[in-house]
Design the sequence.
């Protein structure tokens, strides 16, 4: 079953130096862009992470320091990648919890804005886990009756993820062939940031989801404890979390221009 699309959707996968969203870097990125017409275009880049690739990471994806020594940095690729995905929704395997947050960090680190407010995200792993509880290789075998060759290469994983989603739509009658439905279905819990530090209350107001102010409205805390905002910006939080907090702070200042930072 082909996807019903109103706009392009980019399936993508990252291979990285590790799994720390704030500190680790991309060493390979593959993007499969699928258009409403059914046409596809595929892109792949090796990326110089500007830091050593740990041996345990190389053991997983096979990419070494020598392989990326002459590759472009993410900073030099960020504009091209941003333009490629600008008009698209995003999809991947474990992408809601890892690939999208890490991509956002790399984009912001390169001074290239990244915003999910105008796009949807489908995490194919969440469909699989809700239905079958398996890994990507097992999912490919289960849904597509094929062995995933070159697993843990971004290009192979990206193509497999796209094929799995189409097979899932064929298998499950209750899955609607609609990007909005699939995005909602694959969202485990809604957060205001990617890392889960900022959540929502029942009125859909943004609250802190950690620490001494857990459960409290961000606007109230920043108003009553101005120093907390400065601490957050200087602490080791993801750049996207800081971006959301800064937007909330600026919105409050615009509402009350007499308030000072």
Sequence:
């Amino acid at each position: 079953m082909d996807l019903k699309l109103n706009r392009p959707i980019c399936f993508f996968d990252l291979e990285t130096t590790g799994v720390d969203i704030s500190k680790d870097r991309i060493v390979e990125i593959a993007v499969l862009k699928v258009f409403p017409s059914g046409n596809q275009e595929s892109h792949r880049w090796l990326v110089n992470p500007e830091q050593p690739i740990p041996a345990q990471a190389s053991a997983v994806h096979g990419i070494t320091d020598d392989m990326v020594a002459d590759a472009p940095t993410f900073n030099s690729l960020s504009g091209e990648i941003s333009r490629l995905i600008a008009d698209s929704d995003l999809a991947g395997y474990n992408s809601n919890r890892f690939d999208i947050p890490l991509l956002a960090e790399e984009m912001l680190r390169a001074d290239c804005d990244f915003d999910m407010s105008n796009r949807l995200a489908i995490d194919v792993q969440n469909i699989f886990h809700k239905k079958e509880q398996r890994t990507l290789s097992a999912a490919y075998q289960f849904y597509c009756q094929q062995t995933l060759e070159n697993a843990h290469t971004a290009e192979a994983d990206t193509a497999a993820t796209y094929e799995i989603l189409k097979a899932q739509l064929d298998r499950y009658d209750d899955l609607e062939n609609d990007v909005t439905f699939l995005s909602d279905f694959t969202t485990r819990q809604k957060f205001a940031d990617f890392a889960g530090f900022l959540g929502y209350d029942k009125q859909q107001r943004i609250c802190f989801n950690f620490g001494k102010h857990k459960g409290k409205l961000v606007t109230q805390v920043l108003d009553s404890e101005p120093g907390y905002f400065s601490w957050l910006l200087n602490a080791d939080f993801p750049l996207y979390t800081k971006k959301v907090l800064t937007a909330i702070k600026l919105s409050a200042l615009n509402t009350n221009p007499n308030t000072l930072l």
In short: Residues 198-255 form one domain. The mean pLDDT is 92.
